Amino acid sequence: MIDKQQDFLTLTGAARRARSEGYDITYHGLRNLVAAGYISHVPNGSRIYVFYPNVIRFLQKGSRLNRAWSTSSPAPATNSTIRPRYPRCRGHFLKQI
After folding, report:
1. 23, 52, 26, 20: which is closest to 39 by C-alpha?
2. Angle, nearest 10°, between helix axes 52-61 and 11-20?
């Protein structure tokens, strides 16, 4: 396959093109796949470009593909956020000397 310039699309353009071709994907779904590393991307300023054939390949074959950047670690949890636990502050910093 020859890489054509029109195959590199923004996330919005890729989601619109996929929807017009009958794939059930939204902008936010595509953005989550890119953020999780399943689809490689090229950031350019405030825009994110994806190679459209990679998007279609992932939608057709599913998660059997390796993640774009790291293949050894599992996908991050999407339902929960892991936050560091800090010791409780008892107001010692509020006391004036």
Report:
1. 52
2. 50
Backbone angles phi, psi at 26, to 5 degrees: -110, 170
Side-chain-side CA neighbours of 68 within 13 Å: the count stands at 16
Q: Rounded CA gap, 29 and 25, in Å?
A: 6
Neighbour-count burial of 55, counting CB atoms closer than 10 A to its CB (0-12 exposed, 13-18 middle, 19+ buried): buried
Q: What is the pTM of this model?
A: 0.60
Residues 6+ away with beta carbon under 8 Å from 36: 67, 75, 76, 78
pLDDT digits (tens, 9 = 90+) for 45-60: 999 999 999 999 998 8
